Hints:
- There is one protein chain.
- About 40% of the residues lie in helices and about 25% in strands.
- The termini are far apart.
- Helix 16 packs parallel to helix 17 (about 505-525).
- The model is unreliable at about 605-610 (pLDDT under 50).
- It contains 19 helices and 22 strands.
Amino acid sequence: MNGRIAAMDWAATPLGPISSWPLVIRMSVRIMLSSAVPMCLMIGRQGIMIYNDAYIPIAAGRHPACFGSSVFDSWPEVADFNRTIVTKVLEGDTVTFEDQEFVFRRNGLPERVWLDLDYSPLLDDDGRAVAAFAILAETTKRVRAEKALARSEERLSLALAASGIVGAWDMDVSSRWVTADARFAQMFDLDAADAERGIPQARFLDRIHEADRDLVLNALEQAIAERGDLRVEYRLPGADGTLRWILATGRVVGDAEGGERLPGVVIDITERKAFEAALAASEAGFRTLADTMPQMVWSTRADGHHDYYNARWYEFTGMAEGTTDGAGWNGMFHPDDQQRAWELWHRCLATGEPYQIEYRLRHHSGEYRWTLGRALPIRNKAGDIIRWFGTCTDIHETKLVAEEREVVAHELSHRIKNIFSVLNGIIGLSARSYPDLKPLADELRQRIVAMGKAHDFVRPHSAASRPADNNSSLQALVTLLLAPHVGGDSGRFVFEGDDAVIDDAAATPLALLIHELATNAAKYGALASPGGRVVLSSARSGDDYRLVWKETGGRPLEGEPQAEGFGSRLVKLSVEGQLGGRLERSWQAEGLEVSIVVPKTQLSRSSTLRR
């Protein structure tokens, strides 16, 4: 820069030849050129720049164009800042900045930099300020390092907070002198400044619950002796008398001087300990409850792996604890039931449907006993299955009683069917002796036959007599009773609407009702004509069940009959007396319409009583 100043044609600049410069400027230039500190003169109101070699790195790509030019033109991005400085300094002020931030384009691209700046006025012989003398120091690297360190510490603080770490320490192994952060000091009720300078290990140990001090000290000594990891849980009394559980972890490491250190962190695990205690109490309560239940209780993971059985299971099976975990449970079933139980269980695991099955389970005596197995899935808030809980109930005696009862029921049904046959035989023999009674006898026999069909429909006396259709379906019973009257023309009778579940108690009055309606339709109504048709409509309405028998296509009716026959009284007795319902008849020109309303509970009374 000394050579550039000497070679410059200053006469062609606003400053004029060097010989005309004020003495203070010439002396300042000589001092500046001999200094290793970045310096710059901004002369006059235009701020003509003269600087030394140490300033060149600050100017960077602007050098040498900015030499001898106005600072406002050379540094346009900070022109306002420099104009303010030049104005103040030429008025006699001194201005100082520390770590002043700028955004420069000194190499063509925006760059964030920091500078220490010291501006002083240069006064001529008359005491007038003629230039601003600037001493500069770029602090960009230091500031960036400090900011990076601050960000790193901030991230570390956030990471510690997110991880539950509430303090950090570092112990010199040889001196047992501990330095710690403010959070660690606060936890131990010690002064933060003292902790940062260092505190003897004993002062921290004194703060630990007296019942846990030896545990902590032994863990420290073991980690140091083995040059390994430290992990210990202890209680820390608070100033208010409350206890907090602390987990301390660390590791012995070597330092640069050849010594050893034990840095580590502490985590407040009070909530975890409370949760573990509550969980242990809940687990103990569940096991106590499960072991006092008469049923066998079991539980599986979401994937179906059996991992828990109560005491009743092991008492019943005689198996050693743990031997039926996993898939071992299936081997406890009767060989004929294993595949069926296995397939159903895996289908429930896949669909989430409740599990229910009857199978034979091997008793500790070696006998296979009938058992009812049930299980339900437990779901989280998202609806995902997290566990299955199930029970096994010994139903062996109940199963045997049911089988015996079924045998007796079949025998009774067979005998009742025989009684119907005997009655028909007696009526037939009596009709031969009294020919005048033959029409009445025929009707009576037909009604008994209808009752027999209804009984055999809901209570078959053998597998051979069991109906092909559902024997608890009203629609199937009606279809069976109408079959002789409609023959092969299924279009002559239609059942539409809601079907109903019936039992043997309701089947008899219903059979008499349908038989009378069908018989009268075949004699006098729609089924007596080739084009006649019967539609039986059904519907559930609240607690009632409604049936509407409607005939069309028969001979036109002339109105309600003058007298009520035995069949009509029988129909009314069946509906109102035995079923507790209501019956209405309408003799319309196109055919008879009968409306029947009965309580739904009357249709399956025996099953209701069984429940």
